[in-house]
Write a structure and sequence with these properties.
323 residues; 37% helix; 14 strands; 14 helices; alpha/beta
Length: 323
């Protein structure tokens, strides 16, 4: 069993399953409303918009990926911040019940982060707007407080839902470990949402693998083409394309993996499930092609159930689909 540290975000997901008319109206009313499959960060949402979301789940990329890594068999920990309302949403309790070590979860002033997830009926395609809440409280000092957990992990996964300074602080902790000992964890970076700060994080010397979807790849094309690590590009039903780096975990030929055929209900968080299974397999020393194959199946299976953390398949179910 390998160890995974997810240094990232946790949100309360407010979800609405909606028809195309509602989505069209929302896109016309709000200039920031996300495109299909896109996650955007906003400072706040109008009360009338928030009131349209009737279901609640626990989410956030950092928490989701920790849960997926634990389900994949890793010794997974989540390093992040919740708000003063965490007890109301049982954030720590829910993560712990899914096998995640929550001893690194801190409490920040204000509310826990929030996500507003509009899911298209029929296709399961999602449109996600996130409000930082306690996630915005994370900084370089928080990364230093978590230095021991970051240094002791086999694999560290970070996501772009935290401030860039917090992410760069965590990567600097890993870099100092390498300077001092000659070893460090594998680092996987999920560049969502693909904002103006993502390129700064991707340029850090300790990022080994980046996992953009098609939209993120397009928005970060220049930074990704300059990146010398492994690019794992997720393309939904079209599968996954892996481009080797000039260093690190995979320097051989490019390859693709196709997902199994499924009937999607909700694609929200499929990328997080993919990332969690990927880092779990890399943490246990698995080869990149096998890690990507497992992750591709896991991500696809997660779309057959509503929610994210509640939809994460276990490792045995994923392996059964590979048999």
């Amino acid at each position: 069993m390998g160890s995974v540290a997810s240094f990232g975000s946790v949100n309360v997901d407010h979800v609405r399953y909606c028809d195309s008319e509602w989505l069209e109206d929302a896109a016309a009313a709000y200039a920031w409303f996300p495109e299909p499959g896109e996650t955007v960060a906003v400072e706040s949402v109008p009360a009338s918009f928030a009131e349209a979301f009737h279901e609640t789940f626990l989410g956030g990329k950092g928490a989701n990926q920790a849960v997926a890594a634990a389900s994949a068999g890793a010794d997974a920990s989540f390093l992040g911040a919740v708000g003063v309302d965490a007890g109301e949403h049982a954030v720590r309790e829910q993560l712990a019940s899914r096998g995640v070590d929550v001893s690194g979860v801190e409490e920040a002033p204000g509310p826990t982060g929030a996500a507003y997830v509009a899911v298209a009926e029929g296709t399961g395609e999602n449109h996600i707007a996130i409000v930082a809440g306690a996630n915005g409280w994370m900084d370089r000092a928080a990364a230093r407080r978590h230095a021991e957990s970051l240094r002791s992990a086999d694999c560290v996964v970070v996501q772009n839902e935290l401030p860039a300074d917090a992410l760069l602080g965590a990567l600097d902790v890993v870099a100092r470990q390498h300077e001092e000992t000659g070893t460090r964890p594998v680092v996987v970076y999920d560049p969502s949402p693909a904002d103006e700060h993502a390129a700064r994080v991707l340029a850090h010397e300790c990022v080994d693998v980046v996992t953009p979807n098609d939209g993120e790849y397009a928005r970060l094309r220049g930074a990704i083409e300059a990146f010398d690590g492994v690019v794992v590009r997720t393309r939904g039903a079209d599968g996954v394309t892996v481009t080797p780096g000039t260093r690190g975990l995979w320097t051989s030929e490019a390859f693709e993996r196709r997902p199994p055929a499924v009937e999607p209900v909700d694609t929200t968080g499929a990328g997080d499930v993919f990332a969690g299974f990927l880092v779990a397999e890399l943490a246990r020393g698995g080869a990149m092609p096998h890690a990507v194959e497992l992750a591709t199946v896991a991500g696809a299976l997660s779309t057959t159930t509503e929610g994210v953390q509640t939809a994460v398949p276990d490792r045995d179910r994923v392996r059964d689909h590979l048999a």
